[in-house]
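ok trying this again, last paste got cut off
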Amino acid sequence: MKSLLRLYAFVVVLSLTLPAAAQQTTQAPSIPSTGFAGLDQYRASRIAMFTDDYGQVARYRDADASLGAPAGENRVVFFGDSITDIWKLEDYFAGKPYVNRGIGGQTTPQMLVRFRQDVINLQPKVVIILAGTNDIAGNTGPMRNEDIEGNLASMVELARAHGIHVVLCSIMPVHNYTERAKDFFAQRPQSRILALNEWIKDYAAKNDLVYVDYFSALVDDKGMMKKELADDGLHPNAAGYKIAAPLAEAGIEKALK
């Protein structure tokens, strides 16, 4: 009789604890807070991508396969994050064999994952790299400037090993003149942007690379992006890209020489 009572008690306890355990296993994973609600929301929305396709190689896989080898032209790959992704190259470089391989939100470790597919395998003459602002913001977690620098150096070394000329670009300034801009600005301390740009410029000079200084062309007297060049403080609008385009073109031409 006692054994039956013990068995009954066990079944009751088990029935009471199972729902709680089941609930725990179905809860969505959480991530540490960055202190910025918008960034926390963005990072939480990307958990599936971070675990299933960290470098987002699926984004351009089919486009890369269908592009084929260059047919005698000086192919150029624009490689970067959302600032590159939303840049309508055909509007600023009409008729040029320029290929856009930007992905919004990406950081330099993610770009390294897809560098072979989206740059090397496309056999460009030049790759123009604009990256680092999302690393500073912490899109994929805290990043030291030294880590960003190492990732950029790795991209350069990979490109050079395959005979691809490299154009390195400065990180663009950010402003907080609009409500939409405040979070973007707060996530990207000016001191870190300046320090990283100084390293990029110095690294390019020491390694005989072309350096394109977007920062100086877009910055105002307060050290921020000119208000009229970016509606959200971070991403250039048409006026911003109009200034950036000839700088990119000059850098590409210099690299080809």
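PB: full thing came through this time. The radius of gyration is 23 Å.
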